[in-house]
Amino acid sequence: MDLTFTPQEEKFRSELRGWLDANIPETWKDLRFWRGISDDEGFELRRDWERRKYEAGFAGIAWPTEYGGRGGTPGMKAIYDEEMALARAPQSANGLGLTFLAPTVMAIGTDQQKRDIIGPMLRNDVIWCQGFSEPGAGSDLAALRTSGVLDGDEYVVNGQKIWTTNAMHGDKLFTLVRTEPGSQAHRGISMLLIDMHQPGVETRPLRQISGASEFGEVFFTDARVKASDCLGGIGNGWKTAMLLLSFERGASGISQYTNYRRGYDEIAAAARKLGRDTDPTLRRELASRLVELECLRYHAMHVLTQVEQGRDLGSESSITKLQWSEAYQKLFETFDHLLGLDGVVAAPVDGLDLASLQFEAFWTRSVTIWGGSSQVQRNIVAERVLGLPR
């Protein structure tokens, strides 16, 4: 495991840090600013921010230059993730497209798909959503029922997707559809690229316990998509989806560690201000949380080292998802133990404004479910990494 970065990468860090310092308004660094504006206004601010990053050369850090990227190293991408977290930069408005779809299109897309998808996505001209989960087909993704029936050179799509991030702001959707009537499990599925602004596509927001509505439902009623707008080939949707999801690896744990460590420091500071820093039970919990976060950091550096050496991690990426999601959730369970019943009400506690932490605590309840539940990740690690019998 290599814990260092090259001089070239550290030069990139200095350049990026200087640009972020000059271009992120101080008001944006306070989560209360984002809570005080509408979802639509916040989204447009983030979309414009992404466009300015692209214009300054800070988008697609590790993408090949032929696709509009910077052509950087995995280490530069890790530094980018870390510095964005340290600067409290806004979250990406096109994260699913940039993280998952773009590298998949680069790998297996047609020349036309590469021309039509990658550039507009990097500039944030087109916002992409991911349509995988369905009612009754969440963790068991192969049980999906949304259908596509061929009609001439188009597929007519009917069905429903749920828990679709950015559904209310998306322009296009990459989604899994059963295109072979009567097929079951992983067979007969295709990944279609659907225009969300056409008749027959309806989106509805889903209100979360935290009050946010970043997810939505998507309903298809005779929506149409050209047969050529299929990524990876008709009937190859499952294989394409597995390739797409494999890009959720690399050094993602580095930015997560940075964000979670800041949360840890804020929780520890709150414990001191509330006079709970001498509570032996809470101190043991906080010590355990700190150890778990440091283990996450070392694991992230291990993963980065493997990626730099050209190793395909495959199913081992499930270890990363399992580790960061459970460490994050446990951290805010400790926060809940600190506040007790006050943790479920976004109101000052003994004069302390802890609303941002209280909001985040609600969010963490979901992280061991979406993106593949902890139970599913443990099965993957057991069967495909450790080779244990089913």
Question: What descriptors fit this protein?
Answer:
single chain, 390 residues, alpha+beta, Butyryl-Coa Dehydrogenase, subunit A, domain 1, Butyryl-CoA Dehydrogenase, subunit A, domain 2, Butyryl-CoA Dehydrogenase, subunit A, domain 3, 4-stranded mixed sheet, 4-stranded antiparallel sheet, 12 helices, 8 strands, globular
Helix/strand layout:
Layout: H1 7-23, H2 31-35, H3 39-55, H4 74-86, H5 95-108, H6 111-122, E1 128-131, E2 147-151, E3 154-165, E4 172-178, E5 189-195, E6 201-206, E7 215-226, E8 230-231, H7 237-245, H8 252-273, H9 280-308, H10 317-339, H11 355-364, H12 374-385
Parallel strand pairs: 1-4
Antiparallel strand pairs: 2-3, 3-7, 4-5, 5-8, 6-7
Helix pairs in contact: 1-4, 4-8, 5-6, 5-7, 8-9, 8-10, 9-10, 10-11, 10-12
Biggest sheet, spatial arrangement of strands? 1-4-5-8
Helix content: 40-55%
Give a count of the beta strands, DSSP E runs of length 2 or more. 8
Subunit arrangement of the protein: single chain
Tell me the CATH topology of the largest domain.
Butyryl-CoA Dehydrogenase, subunit A, domain 3
Count every helix, treating DSSP H or I runs of 4 or more residues as helices: 12
Number of domains: 3
Largest sheet: 4 strands, mixed
CATH architecture of the largest domain: Up-down Bundle
What does the model show?
Helix 4 runs parallel beside helix 8. This protein has twelve helices and eight strands. The longest helix is centred in the last third of the chain and has 29 residues, at 280-308. Helices cover 47% and strands 14% of the residues. It has three domains: 7-93, Butyryl-Coa Dehydrogenase, subunit A, domain 1, CATH 1.10.540; 128-233, Butyryl-CoA Dehydrogenase, subunit A, domain 2 (Beta Barrel); 248-385, Butyryl-CoA Dehydrogenase, subunit A, domain 3. The relative contact order is 0.09. With 390 residues, it is of the alpha+beta class. It is globular. Strands 1-4-5-8 form a four-stranded mixed beta sheet. A four-stranded antiparallel beta sheet has the order 2-3-7-6, with no helix packed on it. It has helices at 7-23, 31-35, 39-55, 74-86, 95-108, 111-122, 237-245, 252-273, 280-308, 317-339, 355-364, 374-385; strands spanning 128-131, 147-151, 154-165, 172-178, 189-195, 201-206, 215-226, 230-231. The model has no long low-confidence stretch (mean pLDDT 90). Strand 6 (201-206) and strand 7 (215-226) form a beta hairpin. One of its GO terms (molecular function) is oxidoreductase activity, acting on the CH-CH group of donors. Belongs to the acyl-CoA dehydrogenase family. Residues 235-386 form the Acyl-CoA dehydrogenase/oxidase C-terminal domain.
